[in-house]
Every structure is written in structure tokens, then in C-alpha cells.
Fold this protein.
Amino acid sequence: MSKADPHISETSFHVRYAETDAMGFVHHAVYLVWFEEGRSAFIREQGWSYAEIERSGYFLVASDLRARYLKAARYDQLVTVRVWLAQVKSRQLAFACEVLDSESRDCLFSANLKLHCLNRAGKIARIPSDWQAWLRE
Amino acid sequence: MSKADPHISETSFHVRYAETDAMGFVHHAVYLVWFEEGRSAFIREQGWSYAEIERSGYFLVASDLRARYLKAARYDQLVTVRVWLAQVKSRQLAFACEVLDSESRDCLFSANLKLHCLNRAGKIARIPSDWQAWLRE
Amino acid sequence: MSKADPHISETSFHVRYAETDAMGFVHHAVYLVWFEEGRSAFIREQGWSYAEIERSGYFLVASDLRARYLKAARYDQLVTVRVWLAQVKSRQLAFACEVLDSESRDCLFSANLKLHCLNRAGKIARIPSDWQAWLRE
Amino acid sequence: MSKADPHISETSFHVRYAETDAMGFVHHAVYLVWFEEGRSAFIREQGWSYAEIERSGYFLVASDLRARYLKAARYDQLVTVRVWLAQVKSRQLAFACEVLDSESRDCLFSANLKLHCLNRAGKIARIPSDWQAWLRE
């Protein structure tokens, strides 16, 4: 991955009713679910599959999160989740995310999440080299 | 709505990681969220919006559910939610739903949900006539 | 289990904000999560643990659900989940559930859920005999 | 609130099955729901109710989150959510949270969340003075 031109994944969907709360807006925990779906899409678009990564015995586990809530999303609104790789280390990745209103492109939410690579024993492990190579491309 | 040829809405998406549970499959409550998203899509496809229905002071509230779980869905699987109107009464609707594996078209889940129409006071109300006409078309 | 005197588990908790939706009430999928927590409590109270059942290689998987929504629950309301065994067969169980307002004892929700016993291969299996004996006590 | 001796709310409950994901641990978004339930408990313990705050026309809305995931929680584990006020400003509050294993008191998760006070029009507003006084006590 060249820093000058990182791949940015964009996934769009309508806000589900179940994702709202009594305030009438999307519950703040839901954005983490969307961010995760954005990471899944990012990996899928690169021809990989996070499900396969897990089957090979490695897990990406959230370790550190920063998130900013800028504007509330509402039921049925079309939103776009943008996700890109912010950092690749031997044992850790960071993904960045923005959630936009799909029409106005207003930013509703932004976040940065660090993930550790764990092996099946639950220990922090090196990210497998083929996967690292792919991530750095 | 002619029973011979009801409109069937089809919405497809990937299973989100957050929708799985420790068994490795989609949690059984999540299918209700998908069914609901299918109803939203159904209404959207007809040029209506459930958000507008609520703004006009009417609410559709779940009253009776039958659901059958046939095959488990997994993370990242592409699923298709099919939703159609099963019944229209003056104060009550029923929607039916099937969740399919998008590729094999195997049925994973089927359900039937009755919903009451409530007004802002929380009382059971007649479904507004323009909306009834639209539903019966 | 003697039908004359089944064990009924009662678990009480406050409705969480995240469990509400834009209608201002608890989302209808959440009751399934509460019912499940009631089953966990039921098993815990009998000195068993569903986590151990899974570690021993057996899984209880939802197969058939009937649910009735009677009265809406709200944020912060204290609710009581009552769960009991409705049926024990060699390969299948059924649990029943009522959710009450803890104070008035009004019934908000009632449901019946059939669960299959699966083994690690995902095939329907006999419920292990020690566990069956315990269930029938 | 004297910084030397802030009130710390402690709420304990079992991890629900629905809160786990395919990795076998609690999904990372769920901790935000627990943190929120801890804030509800905090307010409840002080003789206030967040539901009443909303009825009086004020809303506390998440604006900035920092979270660290230290150890994974599992189904049926007894966890304790500790919540305290970290900051009171005229238009903004910050709550801090730790989730512990109830037995070992190991810390699984820690977070700090800033919340804005909004009025019914959705504008940032001063926290009502009686509530501010109570918060600063």
C-alpha cells in the first residue's frame, strides 16, 4: 500500500430501524458494527476474506478505539462507510473509518481502531507474512 | 394487492460479524432485524417510506410472530431477504419473510409477523385509507 | 420434571437504553435476547452451565418460535423474565417465557421456543442422558 | 462532586449469549452498551432518572470516545461495570468506565466518553442548573 494512494473501501446501506434508539437516532454502539462491516468489505474487495483468515488460525482483535460522533444518523437514511488501512505493523493493524451521509457527503462519525493479531492460543502473534505483504502492497 | 401476484421485495447483504454468536452462526434474534429491514425495503420499493408513516402519526407494532429456523447462516455469507404482504386488515397487517442463501437459494429462515397499527396515543387505530388503498393495490 | 410443579426461573433487570428503538419502546428482537438470558439463568439455577454443555460438544439451536407481544416495555423499566421447560424430548427441548413488568406483574411478552440438540458436526443428536435425566427431574 | 471522593457506581451481571460473536468472546461494540447501562445505574443510584431528564427536554449525546480493550469477556462470565463522572462542564459531561471480571477484579475494558447536552431542537444546550448542582455535589 502506498501511503500516497491507499485503497478506500466504500459501502452504502440504509439505516435499519433496530439500529435506532429512543432518542430517534442511531445508537452510538452501532457505528462500531458499521465500521466492522466496512473492514469486512475492505478485505473482501482486496480478494481476501476475513472468514478465511480466521480459519487459518489468526484473529484480529480490537485493542484501542478513538471515535468522534459528529452528526446523528436516522432510520432509513442512506449512509456510506469509508474504511482504509491507517497502519500496518508486524503484530498490529489500524483501520480508519468515516461514516458519511451518502447524499450530502457530510461526515457523521469518524474513528480509528487498532487491532492485535492473535493466534488460536489467544496470544499476540505476528501477522502471517503473505497477509502482511498483501496489506503493504 | 392481487393474491395471484403479490410484490415480493428482495434485499441482499453480507452477514455482519457482529451478527454471529459464540456458536459461530448468526444469532437467532438477528433474523428479526433482517425481516424488519426487508419490510423497510418493501415499503421503499413501493415509493413509500416507513419513516413518513411514523411522521404522520401512525406506528406498526409487532403483535404476533411465528418463525422457523431451518439452516444456520454464517459470517460473510451473502443472504437474501424476501418479504411480502401476507394479509391486510383495517387495523392489522401481516408480512411474511424468507431468508435465503443468495447463491444456492436454500431457505434458512421463514417467518410470519402480524403488526397492529397504533396512533400517537398508543391505541390501536385504523390504517389510514390512502395507505390501505396502496397496500391492497 | 413433574408438570404439576415445574421450576420457573425469574430474572429481573432494567431495560437498557440500547434496547429501545425510535418508537420509544423496546425493539421486538430484544425480547428474544431476554428469553435467552432467562434460559441461561434457568440452567444456572439448576447448578448447570450452558457454557459447559457447549464445551462437552452439544449445542441447543433455535428451531421454532412462537411469540406474542402484549405491551411495550420502555427504557429503565424493571422487567422480570420468567422461563420454564415446556417439553423434553430425546432430541429437542421447548422453553416457555413470559416477560412481566416487575411491579405490576403485567405480562408484556410471551413465547415458546423449540430447540434442537446438535453435536459438533452440526447434526441433530440425542440430548446426553445425564442432562436428560436432570431435565426430567 | 469532590474529586477526592467521587461516587463510583458498580453494576454486575452475567454476559449474555447474544453478546458474544463467532470468535467466542464478547463483541467489542457490546462494551459501549454496558458502559451506557453503567451510566443509567449511576444516575439511578443518585435518585435521578435519565428517562426523566429526557422527558424534561434534554438529551445526553455521545460526542467523543476513547476505549481500550484489555482482556476478552466470555459468555456467562460475571462482569462488573464501574462508572464515575470524570468531568462536568456547563454543556458537556464525561463519564469514565471500567469493566472488571467480578471475581478476579481484572480489568477487561476501560473507556472515557464525552457527552453533549442537547435540547429538543437538537442544539447544544446548558445542562439545567439543578442537574448541574446535583452532578457537582
Notes: Chain C has a mean pLDDT of 93. Residues 100 and 107 of chain C are 4 Å apart (CA to CA).
